[in-house]
Structures are given as structure tokens and as C-alpha cells.
Amino acid sequence: MSPLDSITTGAQVGILLPLLTAVVQRPAWSAEVKKLVAVAAAVIAGVATVAASGGWQQFQNGTLTTATLAAVLAASQSSYDLLWKPTRVAPAIETFTSPGAAKETG
Fold first, then answer.
1. Which of 18, 31, 53, 66 is the most buried (most CB within 10 A)?
2. pTM metric for this prediction
């Protein structure tokens, strides 16, 4: 697999990551806590992407690993700010998956 494939895969993962992160996020959390959870999720997803796209030996290439992690983080933050937050999809998932959501809606 070429280095560009790993970075491209990282960007694709990053675009969808805010939807998965929204499942564990809670509306009542502070912006700082939400940001910390989002960055931690991006790092975990980036490591998984590197491993899945090139195997564990790919971690020997520090530049490619860093670029893929950066692609996941950049894509996740950008897609959240430009797509998932303005359309209210991610906030709706946060609200729906929060404890007590059934009581609030029903």
C-alpha cells in the first residue's frame, strides 16, 4: 500500500469519526472535555488506521504514521465544524445517546 493510500484512508476515517465520537459525548460536558475526547478518539482511530492500512510494521515509518494521524485529526475536526455540527447531526446523536434521553423525548 502506498503512503498516499494510508493518508487518504486516514482522511476518510476522520470524516466519519465525529459521528462515532458523538455516541460517547454528552451535551452537558464542557467544550474542553469534548475536545479532549475528540482528540483522543482521533489518535486511537489514527493508530488503528495505520495498522489496518499497512500492518504493524508501518509504524517503523514515523513520517507516514504522523501524517496519517494528522490526516485523521484534521479531517475529523474539519468535518465536525463544517458538516456535522452545522447540520446538527452530531449534536443530535449526542443528545439521543445520552443517559436520560428517553425520559426527555418521551
1. 18
2. 0.84
